[in-house]
Amino acid sequence: MDLKEAIEKRRSVRAYSDRAVGAGEIEEIISAGLRAPSACDRRAWRFIVVDREELKQRIFDEGGTRFIKDSPVGIIVLYDNRTDDLEYCDHIQSGAAAIQNMLLAATALGIGSCWVCHLPYKKTMRALFAIPRWYEPIAYVALGYPAAPAGPRTPRERGPRDVTAWNRFDFEEGAPPSAVRLKARRAAKDIYFRLPLSLKKLLRSFAERFVVKFKE
């Protein structure tokens, strides 16, 4: 499919069939990531393919989203964090650019994908996957053939003219309301992710209902 079609068809897929994603498809998806722009053309990506059930289960047990353990395979996208531009976190931007390419490549191959940042703390991910301190875990890309055909995309509420200003921030919107609930949610998640694994498992049911899925 062409680029426009891939952009329009891409969906976040969270339910997968048992059909395996082949090594060739994974290589093609990563190859698309390697064609993304990177700050100062450093091209400092690294990718860890995760297909071992015990590792996916451990990510879930440590606080990652549930469907990670049900997806056939995933890719942890890393980027070298040795940058002098911490103001704009160019290492994170470079990693994110690769991820978007990967999602579009997966869509073109008929493979479902989901960009996942609901993960355990980075220090936990580093320990689980022996990630050196100079590589930053950017996100996890879950991959698998969809369990069911994707439905029509929910129409976007706003078009380009609604979200674009020229030369200055010229949008009619007031200051946001109090962020007390957001701060409480952040604090609760911080406490949860710091718990030992045994307590995480014990409290998982509670956490999914009242912490992880709590919305404004």
Molecular structure report:
There is one protein chain. With 216 residues, the chain is an alpha+beta fold. α2 (23-33) crosses α4 (90-108). A four-stranded antiparallel β-sheet has the order 1-2-4-3, with helices on both faces. The longest helix has 19 residues, at 90-108. The protein is built from eight helices and four strands, in the order ααβαβαβαβααα. It has helices spanning 3-9, 23-33, 53-61, 90-108, 122-129, 160-163, 180-194, 197-212; strands at residues 45-50, 73-80, 112-116, 135-144. Mean pLDDT is 91; it is low at 212-216. Helix content is 41%, strand content 13%.
What characteristic shape results from the CA principal axes?
Answer: globular
Let me know the average pLDDT: 91
Strand order of the largest sheet: 1-2-4-3
Oligomeric status:
single chain
Main sheet makeup: 4 strands, antiparallel
According to DSSP, the number of beta strands is 4
Helix and strand sequence = HHEHEHEHEHHH
Task: Please indicate the percent range of residues in DSSP E strands (runs of 2 or more).
Answer: 5-15%
Structural class: alpha+beta
The helix content is 40-55%
Q: Which stretches are poorly predicted, pLDDT < 50 over at least 5 residues?
A: 212-216
Tell me the number of helical segments per DSSP (H or I, 4 or more residues long).
8
CA distance, first residue to last residue: 38 Å
Report the C-alpha radius of gyration, rounded.
Answer: 19 Å
Describe how the helices and strands are arranged:
Elements: H1 3-9, H2 23-33, E1 45-50, H3 53-61, E2 73-80, H4 90-108, E3 112-116, H5 122-129, E4 135-144, H6 160-163, H7 180-194, H8 197-212
Antiparallel strand pairs: 1-2, 2-4, 3-4
Helix pairs in contact: 1-4, 2-4, 7-8
